[in-house]
Amino acid sequence: MPAELNLVGQRFTRLLVLEKRGKTQSGQYRYLCRCDCGVEKVVATGELRYGKTKSCGCYSKDKARTRLYKHGRSNRESKDYYEYHRETYIKRKYNLSLNEYNDMLESQNEECYICGYKFGQKKGDICVDHCHDSNIVRGLLCDRCNRGLGYFMDNIDSLEKAVMYLKDPPYARNNKYQHKRY
Fold it and tell me: What is the pTM of this model?
């Protein structure tokens, strides 16, 4: 029979083994460990020895954080944090590079293609309009125009009827339905 392992006092990545705490169902010993961040956790022998558990969970979070921030632009303290996330969102959702997006913006004189709203008056006031069936990007619109097209579900017949309605409303000829101002 092999000699009993005693890991008390040993360090495994960020965990320092404090005391033995009985056995698991599979027969491995469990140890109370303290992470470098101060959190205590009970861990089985095999998880410690084979590197499965390296900390209380803070190690993997720190590792992921450094992987996300390696270029420095996705960190909230970074000057171009919002620009970076806008850039990655546009690339992921519409497959547009930042240069293509900026070219579209410049070709539209930085205003909504439909109503002429000047972009930049509010944060996030530019919408990338696209066809929901083909995913083809059509242009840059303000939020109102983009929602308007969305409410009409890109239906040209409905939009043409709306234009006809605005040009010649059916009940405008009859003053009986005139709106009273208070």
Answer: 0.55
Rg for the chain (alpha carbons), in Å? Answer: 31
pLDDT score, position 135? 86
Coil, strand, or helix at residue 58? helix
Q: Is-contact 28 68, C-beta < 8 A?
A: no
- Spelled out in words, what is the top-level CATH class assigned to the domain 108-167? alpha beta
- 109 φψ region: left (φ > 0), alpha (ψ -120 to 50), beta (else): left
Residues 6 or more apart from 147 whose CB is under 8 A from it?
A: none
Q: What is the pLDDT of residues 11-26, one digit of tens each?
A: 999 999 999 998 888 8
> Is the four-CA dihedral 38, 41, 46, 51 of positive or negative sign?
negative
pLDDT at 75 over 70: no
Run of H or E residues at 32: strand 29-35
The structural domains of the chain, with segments of one domain joined by +, span 11-64, 108-167
First CA to last CA distance, the chain: 97
Residue 133 tokens, joined: 């069936």
Task: Determine the Cα–Cα distance for residues 117 and 142; give it in Å rounded to an integer.
Answer: 7
pLDDT single digits (tens) 130-165: 988 888 999 999 999 999 999 999 899 999 999 999
